[in-house]
Amino acid sequence: MYGIDLGTTNSVISIIDNDGKPRVIENKNGGRITPSAIFTKDNKEFVIGENAKKKYGMDPTHTILSIKRLMGANEKIKIDEIEYSPEELSAKILRKMVDDANEKLGINYNQVVITVPAYFDDNQRNATKKAGEIAGLEVLRIINEPTAAALAYGLDQREPRTICVYDLGGGTFDVSILTIGENICEVNSTAGNTRLGGDDFDEILSKWIIDIFERDSGVLISNQTVAISRIREAAENAKKQLSESNEADIIIPFITQDENGPVNLELNIKRSEFEEMISEKVQETIECVKNAIEDSKINKSDISEILLVGGSTRTPLVQKSIEEFFGKTPNRNLNPDEVVSIGAAIQSGIINGSIENIILADVTPLTDRKSTRLNSSHGKLT
Ligand code: ADP
Ligand code: MG
User: Fold this and answer.
1) Neighbours of 28 (CB within 10 A)
2) Are 171 and 67 in contact (CB under 8 A)?
3) Residues annotated catalytic, as ranges
4) Ligand 1 atom nearest to 241, measured from its CA
């Protein structure tokens, strides 16, 4: 049995090992995280993951990103005259995750637990289940991402408490206030922005790089697709580096050429400069946290734990801002991009009995949830 975090940007698969501990299973390329990117051309084989993500810059019409955004929508995606439903495309990702894991472990499992955002409605949950079925999988349960995170942190075994799960991913942000009781996990409120995430940081940094490059070199590159996609990739890498160090070098050899020959891009950025660029976006997430707390009717001071979820919570400014707002240090003992999948695996272990001393953490269905507040700043789907 596997636990799968089917993410908008990245997906992760985990299993409960023989020793009863959950662990992430690497994909064929050795990656613990697989981009939820799909590439297909001329009705040939589907490419999923890192290689598909790389294709996006050069061949966007054959590459699909963020298919999760369309789950449950009555929309088709046309590639080379063939129409696919969002479920069919998500099924390709699920199949790839399970195939890689099965191959790695030398087994042939097809039972899975899949996570979805707490704000997904019944339609979106059913679509996710259907994607699993199309992939030939048996979907044992669909659970909420924040609940999975709480399970991964082992927050189910202790006394009742209220926690905050802050999830900043690639293209989406959501925050949930959960009450964890003896054997139930209730989502009190959710707030967020389905168009806010690490992609925005990449975009902002890319613009900064392009502006400086064009100003210093006098060469215009804004209309050069390949150059722009290389800048985007370099920006994401620099962003990640700035989570570890105080500055980052951005070097792209032969980004373009002028009448004198090849032109290279070489820049340095300080963490403080980057933080200034993204501070408005980060502040937006804090506003959502305020809304979620307000809607939950729970006092901020009664929130005993803050869990950080999503790759973008590795950004130091994000951590700092949350800490400042709550006046306490958020919990980030687990890898933020793996914690949801780990929780899904734990849920699968509870179902099949390989994990015994945990009481079933139930998931409150959407209709029972007290409040959801979502905005989407750009509006367009895809
Ligand atoms: P999702 O849940 O949206 O599918 P993830 O939780 O995997 O996605 O988050 C992906 C985002 O996290 C990307 O924007 C990625 O650039 C960002 N990210 C990953 N590692 C880091 C890091 N070290 N520092 C800052 N951002 C990071
Ligand atoms: Mg996620």
Assistant:
1) 14
2) no
3) 5, 68, 145, 167
4) 23
